[in-house]
Automatic annotation (TrEMBL):
InterPro entries: Adenine_glyco, DNA-3mA_glycosylase, DNA_glycosylase. This is DNA-3-methyladenine glycosylase I. The lineage of its organism: Bacteria, Bacillati, Bacillota, Bacilli, Lactobacillales. Gene3D superfamilies: Hypothetical protein, domain 2. One of its GO terms (biological process) is base-excision repair. Keywords: Metal-binding, Zinc. The keyword Metal-binding applies. Zn(2+) binds at residues 9, 23, 180, 184. The keyword Metal-binding applies. One of its GO terms (molecular function) is DNA-3-methyladenine glycosylase activity.
Length: 189
C-alpha cells in the first residue's frame, strides 16, 4: 500500500518536519488568541532578515526567554535585556528584542483598556480572512495594501518593527491572510 503524499505550499515541501508541521497546523489558520497573536507577531519580527526555519528551531527557547509570550510579563523585561542579549539560544538582536518589549506594553495597554489585541487586528479586515488563490510561491507578494494600512495603524499606536513586510508575514501566520497555494491541501477552495 502506497502512502499518500499531501500536496503542500512549495515552501513547506522540504523534508524538515518542523516546517511541515508549522505549515500543516498553524500557518494561515485564523488565530484569535491574544497571547498567540503576540507570539506570532514577535516571531515575525525576529524572522526579519533570517530564515523561518531558524526561528522555528529557536521557538521553544524564545518561549522560555520571553515568558511564553505573556505580554503582561514581557512588557516589564527591559531590565532583563542584557541577559536576553547573552542568551545564545535566541536571536540576540537588541532592536528586535526592544521592539517586542515595547509591543508587549501596547498589547497589555489594549487589554487593560478593555480591547483585545484580537479584536484590534481583526476589525481592520472586517473580521474575515483575506483569501488568495496564488498558483506559485513566487506569485505571493511580500506585502499588499492591507498590510501597508495595518502597518501604518500599528505604527501610529506605537508598535515598533512593524513595517509592511513584517506585518504581511504576520497576517499570513495568524490567518488574517490565507496564502496557501491553490494546489495545497489547505487552500480555501
Amino acid at each position: 500500500m502506497q502512502k499518500t503524499q499531501l500536496k503542500r505550499c512549495s515552501w513547506a515541501e522540504s523534508a524538515d518536519h518542523l516546517l511541515q508541521s508549522y505549515h500543516d497546523h498553524e500557518w494561515g489558520r485564523p488565530c484569535h488568541n491574544d497571547q498567540h497573536l503576540f507570539e506570532l507577531l514577535s516571531l515575525e519580527i525576529m524572522q526579519a532578515g533570517l530564515s523561518w526555519q531558524t526561528i522555528l528551531k529557536k521557538r521553544s527557547a524564545f518561549r522560555q526567554a520571553l515568558a511564553d509570550f505573556d505580554f503582561y510579563q514581557v512588557q516589564s523585561m527591559e531590565p532583563q535585556l542584557p541577559q536576553l542579549l547573552n542568551n545564545s539560544a535566541i536571536v540576540r538582536n537588541q532592536a528586535k528584542l526592544s521592539a517586542i518589549i515595547n509591543n508587549a506594553r501596547i498589547v497589555a495597554d489594549l487589554n487593560r483598556s478593555g480591547q483585545t489585541f484580537n479584536n484590534y487586528l481583526w476589525q481592520m479586515i472586517d473580521y474575515q480572512p483575506i483569501i488568495h488563490h496564488y498558483q506559485t510561491a513566487a506569485a505571493v507578494p511580500a506585502t499588499d495594501t492591507s498590510a501597508i494600512q495595518i502597518s501604518q495603524t500599528l505604527k501610529k499606536a506605537g508598535f515598533k518593527f512593524t513595517g509592511p513586510v513584517v506585518v504581511y508575514s504576520f497576517m499570513q501566520a495568524a490567518g488574517l491572510v490565507n496564502d496557501h497555494q491553490a494546489d495545497c491541501f489547505l487552500a480555501v477552495k
